[in-house]
Amino acid sequence: MGSIQQRNLHHLVIVFFLMTSTSLTADGQIKLAGYGSTRCSGRVEVFYKSTWGTVCDDNWDLNDAEVVCRQLNCGTALSAPQLAHFGKGTGEILLDDVDCSGSERYLIECQHRGFSTHNCEHNEDAGVFCSASLPMASISVNPVDEVIWGQDVKISCSISSRPEHLVIETFILEKASSSFSMNQASSANSATFSMPKVNTENEGSYRCRFQAKVSNQAFTSPLSTSVRLSVTVPLQQPSISLTSLNRGLDWGSEGAETTRGYSFVFTCSISSPYPGGVFSLVFSGSSLNYTQPAVNNSASFDFPVAEYEHQGNYSCVYEVTLSSRRFTSEHNAPISVIVKMSLLLLVSSAAAGGLLLLLLVLLVVCLVCKRRQRAKQPGALVQTQMAVRNSKEEDEEDVYMNVNPEDTEEKLKKDEGREEEEESDEDDDYERASPDVNFTKANEVGYSVEEHREEEEETSDDERDYENVTQPFGEQTIDIYGGDEDIYQNL
């Protein structure tokens, strides 16, 4: 029984202690409220005896605000605004004439006139700005869409609200991955940074922040989101033209026609504000490119002698190097070049070709004739020799003698004796010893081969016809055909 009473008493003590401690913890709690307030900035309100009340701004300063910021875990006090900066509160005014040293843990530990004792109105409500309340800055770039090399650029940093009564306020512009930093003091909610004539060295990501100093102590807002600054170099398409110094250029539907051996010149030009640069003449279908430095934004490419390998399409490209970066234009519309042969050269070539062809034909004809002549020459020679021999034999046979009867037998014996001598030499003529006999020779043995050939062509029959005319006693007629003339001898 006694143990039960002891336990109940113990429970009552615990409940009383808990209720007392809860009441102590609740009293003296603070919060920040009002128009535009944040977790670490706003109108100061205190909880006491189950109610929230405001604090009068009499003797309100940074030491009082420092205690509030520490109690709320909001860093260091930046300012202690008065006169209901965050708007008028409602309800009871709980504290007035607050006087803190700045080292207290809670606001109710500071000296004051007592709870609910005051001589203020809500238009004198006190507020605080803590360092943790510094707003994140925002950043913007102008121009927004595209930044061109050499253009003036402005970067703006701003905050939505700013603490009052700050000694120094500074906006800081920083470049990521670089030591670049620009500072600009401002009493407003924004600052603008000017960057004249930007180049590729100004490219990068930029961020900004807001910095405040209180009692020589700097407080910085969180960094803004980054913005990318990209510098572009827009290059126009270069123009291209084609000329010829010796007028060996004609324009047709398929392009420019130039005569082989004549000269032609390409000219590339561009309207560019950038210094220097080079032009490249691109020859399609070939890896060979011609490059010339730009002089007054143009360059010329000379071809002193047009050859067939120069046929093709040509276009210009402009390149410029700015801040160690190279920028290239687009290709322009190409010009097609056709190399043709000159008319005089064409006629000369045709004439030379015709002459050469004629010489070849004549050579072939000569070779054919010579070959035919060689083919016919052995047979003709044989026929000629045979014809000469037959002619000699005929000459021997064609000699007829008319003699007296009493001399016939003697003459025959002499002829038989001479036949053996004449067989050794066919070129000798037969001689008859009788003074009464007249010998007539029909043809000369020494006919040339050509005369004999003409004689064969004129004669329809190779064999010779002979006619012996019956003669009366004492008279004989010899008719020799095939000779130049008929010889008659009458004895």
Report on this model:
The protein has 491 residues and is of the alpha+beta class. Among the domains are: 29-132, Mac-2 Binding Protein (Roll); 134-232, Sandwich (Immunoglobulin-like), CATH 2.60.40; 239-343, Immunoglobulins (Immunoglobulin-like, Sandwich). 24% of the residues lie in helices and 31% in strands. It is built from five helices and 28 strands. It has helices at residues 2-26, 62-71, 343-397, 405-423, 449-458; strands at residues 30-38, 41-48, 51-55, 77-79, 93-95, 127-130, 138-142, 147-148, 153-158, 168-175, 181-185, 190-195, 204-214, 217-220, 227-229, 231-232, 239-243, 249-252, 255-259, 264-269, 278-283, 289-293, 298-303, 312-322, 325-328, 335-340, 466-469, 477-480. The strands form seven sheets. Strands 18, 19, 21, 22, 24, 25 and 26 form a seven-stranded mixed beta sheet that branches. Strands 1, 2, 3, 4, 5 and 6 form a six-stranded mixed beta sheet that branches. Strands 10, 11, 13, 14 and 15 form a five-stranded antiparallel beta sheet that branches. A hairpin with a 2-residue loop joins strand 24 (312-322) and strand 25. It is rod-shaped and about 160 Å long. The termini are far apart. 22% of the residues are buried. Mean pLDDT is 75; it is low at 15-25, 392-408, 423-452 and 456-491. It comes from Cottoperca gobio (Frogmouth). Pfam families: SRCR. Residues 30-131 form the SRCR domain. One of its GO terms (cellular component) is plasma membrane. Residues 384-476 are annotated as: Disordered.
